[in-house]
Structure formats: structure tokens, C-alpha cells
Amino acid sequence: MGVSHKKIFLSTLLPLLEAGGCHGDALYLREETLGVNKDNSSTDIGRQTDEGVKLRVFDGERWHERGLSGWDERALRRAAKALGKNQKRQMKVRLELPKEPLDADYKALGRTDPATIPLRKKIATVTDLHKRLSATSKQLINARVYYDEMRETKIYVNRHRQMSQEIGGCLVIMVAYVQTKDGDMRYHYKSFYDHGWERTKIPAKELKEVARFAERVAKAKKLPPGKYHCLLSPGMTGLLAHESFGHGMEADTILKGRAKAKEWFGKRIASAKVSIADGPLEKGAHGFFFFDDEGWLATKTLMVDKGIVNLPLTDAYSAARLGVPRSSNGRAESFDHKVYARMTNTFFEPGSDTKKDMLARIKDGLILHNASGGMEDPKGWGIQIQGVIAERVKDGRPTGKLYYEIGMTGYLPTLLKNIQAVSKEFDIPGTGRCGKGHHDWVRVAEGGPWLLVKEVILS
């Protein structure tokens, strides 16, 4: 059954959900994924589909929910009737809900919809990319190419809105494995993402860069612990924004008293050069969408506005309880998971400096190229980023000398105040899924400008 039929049917459930005078809404979710992954020894293919409907009723104090797998209209009608008749309206919490009438359908499927490409061509494309990557260097002991395709369909209805969105995604990850002189295995990777099949066209220059950098990683040394003058790449700045500030600004975390950000609203935490945003409308980024899972149209939220801690990321309930403006960050992992305030594409806003000029300001320091991951600490605002690869800089010039498996730590307000410059150059290369602790995973991306930061603690 098509999107139009589902929108109409879900709308017929609203009178049943709102029988007790409460607010009701319905959200249909379907996510189809395809993976084709190849290394030197095998080719693996996997498919997965997750589909269902979330029915909700808000009684003025809390949400009551029911998630149903698949699409069964009789079961949906029975569930809506049972959910609606058992709830009575209260007046304890007033939610800011989407009220402007809107009937709209949105799509982001790229220039070439991945669904139109036969599986055999996808396998052949991945095989060719693997062959090309392997041929770029004799030092590679293995090469791996990941192709992950996603198609997400969502339909949201309440008494005012009937909306749908279809979002495609093509992610290609190139991984080059090398061996140190001591026999240890190391690797370097680069990811490429966009909505359409066209993203699978990877230039030869990009393949060579992955292999050449991996060759250098094989010779990388350990970094002496200390404080360093650093230029952070977009991948690093995005990870910094995400792990250290984004989680701490999710309003439900603040509401539970688990985030230090509550103490900083309206206060200066950095220079006027620094703004940090969350923006689901960054086209071509992994966390892109047109509306959130509560029907709120996507907008950018400035968490830090010219150095001042500004607004948190909210879902409807946390915004009402905190008394702050609603943002488009109400997201659920699936139809049978709760909606929480979640990040989307999180980044430092671009500045007025250039990467070249920022690099010239480093007499003795490092370029932080990328990292393997990080952990959030919303309550203490500590920073912990692991697996950083750094390159030595002397008198404004990269020396080519790399350091491997570095840990980056520190206290967020101190680090933000140490930002000296923010570049005009801007990129959101990062892709992944972010959890609420160890559960409730949603699509996110990180990236942004280059940052020049003094006294970065590395070990």
C-alpha cells in the first residue's frame, strides 16, 4: 500500500485516539537496509527491514504509547480504540505541538535513487572499488569496502498535519590495513555519504589518499603526553561537538538533572567566534530529515550562539517541562521505542579564518586528523576522545610525522575558551548512529570547520 493510503488511514485513527479529549498522533516508520561488504577473502551481503506504527496519546501529564509491528489495519484500529478510551484529559503539562495545517510529502533520494540500481551492479561496483583500492599500494595487507544503503519512509499524522518523508542514503567506507615493523595491524579509513547512488563514484585521488595515509600510519609513533597547540580537522571538531556538548544539551538529560549545561544557559562559554549548531536540514548529511518523529518541521538550533550557551535540543515533553522553545529533535529509534531529544547533524558553525592562516600560527604543534570514537560526560562536561591520529607541525608546516592511538581529554568550558580561530572551510564527513547511553540508536553526522585550539590535553 502506498504512502497516500497510509496517511489517510492513520488519519481515521485520530478520533479513536482522542476519544477521551486528549491529544493523539500516529507515526509510521519503515527502514530498509542493504549491505555489500568486501575484503580480500569474502563478499558479504545482508538485507534488513524494520516496519511498524507508533500510536500515542498525551493526557496532559504523560504519553501513553502502543507500537505495532508491520501494517495491519484491523489491529491498528483495535489498538487505537483501546488506547484512546482509557485516557482522560488532565491539565498539568501543556505541550507545544504542531498546529499549522499541513499536508505534504518530502523526498531526498539523490540524483539517482539507489532503489533503481540492480543488486548485481551494486556488487560489481563494490568489487571494483575493492580492486582499485588494493592496487594503490603493495603495503596493504588487506582492504575492505563497505557499501551500506538505507531507505527510510516515515508518515506522521495528527489532527492538523499529514506528512510523509522518504530519505535515501548511500554510505561507502574505504578501509586500508597495514602492518607495522613489529607485526601489529593498523588501518586508515575514509567514508563517503550522500542520498543517491552517485556517491559510489569515488575518484582515484581519494583511493590513493586512503592508501598513502595508511602507509604513514604504519610508521606512526606514540605521542609524549602533554598540552599541544592543535589544528582540529572537521571530523575531529564534529566529534568534539557531538560527544562533549551535544549530549549535554539534550533537554531530557537536562530535565533529569544529568547535565551541567543547565548551569550555563545565558552565560559565556567561549569567544564570539564560536557557535555550535544542530541542523537536520544539512542536505547530504547522514542525520538529515524534513520533520522529526513528533511532526515538527526541521530547523537549525544554535546551542551556542557567538560564545553564549543558548538553547537545548528538545522533544515536545522536555521543552514543555523546561519552559524552552521547541526544536526539531524528537526522535525514536523505531516504532517500538520512545521519542527522546536527540542530536542530528551537530557542528561548529563556520568562521572567518582560513585553514592555511590557522596552520601558519602553529610554531610547534599538531594537526588532529581523525579519531575512532568518544564518550559523553554530560554531568561533568569532561572530554574523552580515543584513537586520535595526529601529525606534527613545525613553523606552520606539516612535517609528515604521525602519532597513533592518542587520547584527548579535558574540561569542555576550558577547551572552548581555548579556541583561537574557526575556518571558513566547512565539511560534514562523519556518519554513524548515536545511542542514548547504550540504546536507542538514531542516524547522526558530525563535521564542521577546522578549529585552532591552544593547550589541548593529549596522551
Describe the structure using short key phrases.
459 residues; 5-stranded mixed beta barrel; 7-stranded mixed β-sheet; 40% strand; PmbA/TldD fold; 21 strands; alpha+beta; 2 domains; single chain
Question: Can you walk me through this structure?
Answer:
The protein has 459 residues and is an alpha+beta fold. It contains ten helices and 21 strands. The protein folds into two domains: 3-218, PmbA/TldD fold; 226-458, no CATH class. Helices cover 21% and strands 40% of the residues. The longest helix is centred in the N-terminal third of the chain and has 16 residues, at 119-134. It starts with a helix and ends with a strand. 46% of the residues are buried.
Blueprint (SSEs and pairs):
Blueprint: H1 3-12, H2 14-17, E1 23-38, E2 43-58, E3 63-69, H3 73-85, E4 102-108, H4 119-134, E5 142-157, E6 161-179, E7 185-194, H5 204-218, E8 226-232, H6 234-246, H7 251-255, E9 276-278, E10 301-305, E11 308-309, H8 316-322, E12 330-331, E13 340-341, E14 345-348, H9 355-360, E15 364-370, E16 373-375, E17 382-394, E18 397-411, H10 412-417, E19 419-427, E20 432-434, E21 442-458
Parallel strand pairs: 4-6, 8-15, 14-21
Antiparallel strand pairs: 1-2, 1-5, 2-3, 5-6, 6-7, 8-21, 9-10, 9-14, 10-11, 12-13, 15-17, 16-17, 17-18, 18-21, 19-21, 20-21
Q: Give the % helix.
A: 10-25%
Number of domains: 2
The total count of strands amounts to 21
Radius of gyration: 24 Å
Report the mean per-residue pLDDT as an integer: 95
Estimated share of beta-strand residues = 35-45%
Count of helical stretches: 10
Low-pLDDT segments:
none
* Secondary-structure-derived class: alpha+beta
From the structure provided, what is the oligomeric state, counting identical versus distinct chains? single chain
Largest sheet: number of strands, sense, barrel closure: 7 strands, mixed
What is the end-to-end distance?
Answer: 56 Å
- Shape descriptor reads globular
